[in-house]
Structure formats: structure tokens, C-alpha cells
Amino acid sequence: MAPGSAQGAPAAGRSGPGMQGGGPAAHIVCMVSDFFYPNMGGVESHVYQLSQCLIERGHKVLVVTHAYGHRKGVRYLSSGLKVYYLPLKVMYNQSTATTLFHSLPLLRYIFVRERVTIVHAHSSFSAMAHDALFHAKTMGLRTVFTDHSLFGFADVSSVLTNKLLTVSLCDTNHIICVSYTSKENTVLRAALDPRIVSVIPNAVDPTDFTPDPSRRDDSTITIVVVSRLVYRKGIDLLSGIIPELCQKYPELHFLVGGEGPKRIILEEVRERYQLHDRVRLLGGLEHQDVRNVLVQGHIFLNTSLTEAFCMAIVEAASCGLQVVSTRVGGIPEVLPENLIILCEPSVKSLCDGLEKAIAQLRSGTLPSPETVHKEVKTFYTWRNVAERTEKVYDRVADEVVLPMKERLDRLMAHCGPVTGCIFAFFAVLNFLLLVFLRWMTPDSIIDVAIDATGPKGAWTKQYFLGKKRRAKEELADS
Amino acid sequence: MAEQRRFLSAAGVPIALRRRQHSASCRELAVRGPRLQLRSLSAVTSAVWLAAYGLFALSENSMVLSAAIFITLIGLIIYLHFVKIDQESLLVIGSLGIQVTSSYASGKESTTFIEMAQVKDVVINEAIHMQKVIYYLCILLQDPEDPQGVSEVVPLFQFCFHGNNLSTGRVDSSRKEELQATIGLLDRSVQKLSRDPGAEEDSSSIK
């Protein structure tokens, strides 16, 4: 179920955890997020691919997430990536409930037994990620946070989340954003020093998204839309575009992949204008099916209203489609101008953009899918992301973790008098709980976990062969 | 021929492992937990009695005191007879099977026998238990209907190693598929204790 692991020659130079040798020391990174496989989405694949590439570079990586149905406990994915599915209650939208304290015993146990040096939390929607940051700071570990989404400033829910984000990030060592727009947004939301915020874009696996012109039907023009059918993705705009363009161009077809609460609107449109043969709704797609849908189309349409970094348009461009998208958030940074047509987020502007793309397609001035693929392939690779993330880790490893007193001062000075005091109080409580836990089970009696990560991991075949042979020799000797 | 080695259990208390080779294909492994500490016993007793005296001072009813006596006595009997395990031992007989015995502090013994044909594998697994992540040694039992399947997971030496009971897990059909996937991984990964008793000494690799 997990996509193929990153292949290729493993980068040498790093000394493995627990090994002496030249070169900078390897980090033991713990990725924490509520969102991980088997759930599907951008954050999930980001965490997985980044972990795989970091393992390839010689670090030890583990992932901590909450239990998904029967999937509880400890699992191993390709190249020994260890995943802890903790039995915590899910509250809303796959995010766990938070009390700031209840996850401390388990997380502390994991951080100690795996000898974690850096805690890397993902996504501001994930309560578990914030909890882990809070605990890691109490335990004196270095912390990194990656923000994957954009927020507003005006409505009540954003005001609250922004406040929480301020508290959570004010003493985090380093923050990673996926685009410059996202960086600007995060710095403003959380009132951060921009110097500790880095921009590392997402990547796509170019081998998963290859063009296949034979799959498209050139007697028609197919517009593909792949997104969750929710308000944020601008599905209401889509429902305005479909009838208008279908009336103008009789050979136009729409292919919509994805599931969500706004599906009913598209179904209504289809019903009202009798477009059953021209608008196909595919429903929810598995990640591996996305490519098969993409290659059937000529034009990819993205109608998002807010987007930090749009993976979907890179995937589409990698499959050789002409991309038409709204000019929102970080999207203008993602692709060069010759590969994308940007429009304002309105029905009229998007229709103009699509008509322009259709005209180019008819006149044959669009570049061929192969050339587009070759160009896009070089833009965003996971190896590059891992390399840049590693630099962040190196930098963080040299920094000092704020001692308790300074941390409290920072909280009170940075987060306003009321919130600051409340959370400073929580931080003290958390510390007392940690002292109690250390008294109950001292760090020294916690078993150190076997390191199974990477090509030198304990559980590769060679180890077994060696072990068996040794056992046999011992038997023969005795 | 017997030898004894000392270890710390996962809860940090000292335990002793004794190995005894009866014959070439028969060997016995016994793990002995710590004895009942006089200190903890007197601590619990005095706590109950102090509480009883407090209640007595409030209610002035002497029934409270006699109830406290009964509670301490019955509690002690139940603890010694059903909870406190002094020693857990594993008798492995090559072609026959594995006998698991636990001796309680009162002298009561409970024995289960697992026939060799039922044993699919012996593995060390990693699991989240209460607020801890632990390694535990367990026997996987063969599912009689499905040669690839596992019907039950029997944890070994649970009391002495972990200080409490990991219940024997019955595997229902909905979880079977997932468990098999895990075991496929385990086969490749966890150091396998091969079924011949000669390699059984790996069980001591748990601290």
C-alpha cells in the first residue's frame, strides 16, 4: 500500500547513529503528525517520502501517529521506517483530542527508548504534533515544525488557532514552510522572527507521474479536476464553469476525481444541464490511481481558494497536462509561466483561462507532454527536500534548547499576558509531570529499541545469516 | 547442570533466570521474580489501618475496625493466591511440546501445555502496553483451519518481566489478515528463536 521507496545509491558520508566516524553526526529524528498512512493526503506522503530520503542519507527516522482502526502498535515500512500508531482518541477530522498532558508518558517513553535528538512535527491542524512539540521542549529536545497550510486572520476559528500556533511556535527551534507565501502567512500568524523560518517546497515523485499520450482521446478535449470536493478547493467555482464551457464547446469533457461534501453541487449541475455523458464524477481516488486519471486529460484545472503549495498542479504538469489555476497563496511560485495559466478566482476569469488553453491546444502550440515532463522532473525532488531539511537539522543541532526559566519568560513576553501566563503554568505542570514520570520509571531502565533503520539496520538479511552461523558455531563448540 | 543469571525486569526489579539442561532435547527455563517485600506489605497494611482508624474516629463504630482486619486478611490471601507470581518456568521438550508453569506465592501452580504441532513460531514482539512500549516474548499458535494463519498469541514470562498480565490474545477473523502481514514482517525481522530447543537461550536477551 505504501508507494515504492526511493531507489538509487544511498548517499554516503554520514556516520550512522551510535557509530563513530568522520563527517557530521547523523540525527535521530522523530516525525510526529496525526496524519500518516493509511490516511491519504499531502502531509501523509510528505512525511513518508521525506523520511525515506533521510534514511537514505544515513539518519535514523521514526514516525509517530495515532491509531487508525485496527492499526495500533508498532509497524515497519520499507527500509526499516518504524511507525508507532499510538492508541489516542481521535476527536475531529483525524486529529486527536488534546489535553496537553495525556500523551506525555507514551511520547516520553518513545523519545527515550529511541534516543531521539530532534522532534519534527508536521501540520498545524494536528493536535498531536503540537503536544509533541510541547513535551519535547519540556524534555530538552530540539524541535522543528513544518507548516503545510495557509490560514486566514479574520474569523473566530483562525484567531484561536493563530493564538495556539503563537504559543506552540514561540520557543520552537526552527520552522519550515512549503512556500514563500506560506512563510509570510506563518510569520504573521505566529508573530515569529522570520530568520528561524525556512522555505523548503514539497516534491513529487516524478517516476510516479509520467505522461502517456496514448491514453487520451484526441477527438475530444478533456479537462481533469482532481481535488477533495470541499469549499476550500473552490468547487463552487467549478460548478459555474462546467455549464458555461460545455455550452460553448460541444467536444469538451470533464473528469472529476475526488470525494467530499460539495459533490452534491456538481451532481446538481450535471442533472440540470443534462451533462451525464460529458461530466464524469469518479469519486474518491487512491493515490496510485491519480496518475491514471491525469493522463486521460489534456488540461488540468485547479480552482483552489487557498493553497500553501499545490502538489496537484505539479503532479499534473509532470504528466504533461496544461495547467490552469487560480492565482492564490503560493501557487504562482510553483511552476514557471510557460507551464501554467493563472486566473483570478472567479468563474469569468477561469473560463477565459480555459478558453485560452483550449485555443492553444487546437492550434497545436502547446509543448508536447514529454518535454513538459522532462522540464518539471528537475524542479521538485524528494532528495533535494531531504538535503535541505538536513541542513535545517544540522543548524538546529548546534542551537541550545531554552532552559525552563527562559522558556517561561519567552512564553509570557511573547504570547500576551493572559495566554502567556496560562501556558507558562501548563509548562510548569508538564515539567512536574515529567519529573514524576522520571521518578516512576527512570530513563535508565527503559529498554533501548533495536535500530532497524536503513541498509545497516539490525534486521537486514545479513544480520540474520551472521547470527545463525554464529549460533551454530557456538553449538558446535560446546 | 544448571546455571543462574541475574537481570533487571522491564519494571526495574531484579529477576533471576535459571537454565537447566535435562537431556539433549529437553531443557527448562525458569524466571524468578522478587520475593514479597516485608516493607511494601507493612506499608499497605498500615495504610489500610490508618484509614480505618480515621473512619473510626469519625463514625465511632467499631465495625470499621473489624472490617479493616477482614479486608487486610482477605486481600492478602487473594494477592498471594491469585496475583503474586513467584516463578514462571518453561519446560521445552523437543518433539513433544512446551509446558508453561506459573507458581503463585501461596504455592498454587497453574500449568498449560502447548503441543509442538500447534507452535507456529516463537518471536519477540514489540507492543504498546499501558503507558509503555515493551518487547515481549511470545508463542504464536497455528490456526488449525489455515496453515498460514495464527490463532492465538501466548505471551511468556509476562509477570516476571513486565510486572503484570498481558492477556492472551485471541485473534478474531477481522484482524487475522493484518496480523499475518505483521508476522510476515516479523519473520524477516525479529530475531527468530528457532524451534529446536538449542537456540532457546535467546530468550534471555530481554534485559
From TrEMBL, chain A:
Pathway: Glycolipid biosynthesis; glycosylphosphatidylinositol-anchor biosynthesis
Positions of the Glycosyl transferase family domain: 213-359
EC numbers for this chain: 2.4.1.198
Residue ranges of the TM segments: 411-437
Localization of this protein: Endoplasmic reticulum membrane
Domain PIGA GPI anchor biosynthesis: 66-155
Keywords: Endoplasmic reticulum, Glycosyltransferase, GPI-anchor biosynthesis, Lipid metabolism, Membrane, Phosphoprotein, Transferase, Transmembrane, Transmembrane helix
Pfam family, one: Glycos_transf_1
Matches recorded under CDD domains: GT4_PIG-A-like
Catalytic reactions on record: a 1,2-diacyl-sn-glycero-3-phospho-(1D-myo-inositol) + UDP-N-acetyl-alpha-D-glucosamine = a 6-(N-acetyl-alpha-D-glucosaminyl)-1-(1,2-diacyl-sn-glycero-3-phospho)-1D-myo-inositol + UDP + H(+)
Chief place of localization: endoplasmic reticulum
Residue ranges the record marks as coiled coil: none
Membrane-topology annotation of the record: Single-pass membrane protein
Function: Catalytic subunit of the glycosylphosphatidylinositol-N-acetylglucosaminyltransferase (GPI-GnT) complex that catalyzes the transfer of N-acetylglucosamine from UDP-N-acetylglucosamine to phosphatidylinositol and participates in the first step of GPI biosynthesis.
Name of the protein described by the UniProt record: Phosphatidylinositol N-acetylglucosaminyltransferase subunit A
Gene: PIGA
TrEMBL record, chain B:
Protein name listed in UniProt: Phosphatidylinositol glycan anchor biosynthesis class H
Phosphatidylinositol N-acetylglucosaminyltransferase subunit H conserved domain location: 89-158
Transmembrane segments: 36-56, 63-82
Keywords carried by this UniProt record: Membrane, Transmembrane, Transmembrane helix
InterPro entries: PIG-H, PIGH-H_dom
Protein family (similarity comment): Belongs to the PIGH family.
GO cellular component: glycosylphosphatidylinositol-N-acetylglucosaminyltransferase (GPI-GnT) complex
UniProt keyword annotation of Membrane present: yes
GO biological process: GPI anchor biosynthetic process
Gene for this chain: PIGH
Organism encoding this protein: Taeniopygia guttata
Biological pathway: Glycolipid biosynthesis; glycosylphosphatidylinositol-anchor biosynthesis
PANTHER family: PHOSPHATIDYLINOSITOL N-ACETYLGLUCOSAMINYLTRANSFERASE SUBUNIT H
